[in-house]
């Protein structure tokens, strides 16, 4: 009798074990389907955005810093966990009232630089495929824009979008050699400081001779923004450097960083006092098919907005802050006009908006990062940034167009 009971128990155990295994297999299949479904949703979502021509918006919240004072991120920022809003929603709490926002992607303070880059890597690939691509970071001073765009290149895990994007482009361009592709890369870098364009790669930067007016009061080199018949933008007399390696670009980025205007304010120890524009022009030709592509990658770190009452700015710093706020206000005016589908869009009201015209009103693939500080004292600025970002996300700017044609007979490309 005991042997029968033991045998029966063993059979029941094996049966239950089989049931558990089946349930685990079903769970694994379901999890795979959920991931596949989410990937399909993202792909369809991106396709819809491209068909509509929307500007995509990613939101990123930086971690709390020692200088932020008392308070925690959860006191101001929270993230909804519903299926619809997971990874896309963010809630801001102000005076007991919750303000919900939804974007194409939301990164919490725990997101790494690699996590962020993965989400934009396909957009970067588009530049190599022959599209105009523009990615820019917007937010109040000290919200993490420069860290997102540049990061700390000396620390591999903290490298920002610019160095990571360049690494990807050079790696893929090398891998495409076996398919007959050769590429030529050209780089330019500028800043817009007090409504003046400065060439950050000019050999005369150290002597300030590229400024509109030098310290001595004499006129120096002046730069003019121009648009050609094909919708391309260029700046007259701007230094353009042919590059063949990541090492070359890294050296140029270091040169530009040393030349860029930064300063200390009450809100930020290292506040960028200018808008930084990095442009990579890509020309590719396939020796076998004679197909030619021309892509552009614009990566832009905007200066941060500041409330004059909080910045503590005086003298030259006050002038800088006013110029920054004015240009960002002009950007806001452009976005509002685009959202309302007005006949006249005031692109010419500032150097920044005129330079961004092809990105905001043309056939570019455009993405904006809205960067936020989780500090409770910045909740007002965070709400303003998020409301602006929502308007940006609603703008339809046109369907992206790939720039491709058959090679001209005498075309010659380097860096192959």
Automatic annotation (TrEMBL):
GO terms for biological process: microtubule-based movement. GO terms for cellular component: microtubule. One of its GO terms (molecular function) is microtubule binding. The keyword Aminoacyl-tRNA synthetase does not apply. InterPro entries: Kinesin-like_fam, Kinesin_motor_CS, Kinesin_motor_dom, Kinesin_motor_dom_sf, P-loop_NTPase. Residues 54-395 form the Kinesin motor domain. Residues 6-40 form a coiled coil. ATP binds at residues 139-146. Keywords: ATP-binding, Coiled coil, Microtubule, Motor protein, Nucleotide-binding. The keyword Nucleotidyltransferase does not apply. Belongs to the TRAFAC class myosin-kinesin ATPase superfamily. Kinesin family. KIN-14 subfamily. This is Kinesin-like protein. It comes from Cannabis sativa. The lineage of its organism: Eukaryota, Viridiplantae, Streptophyta, Embryophyta, Tracheophyta.
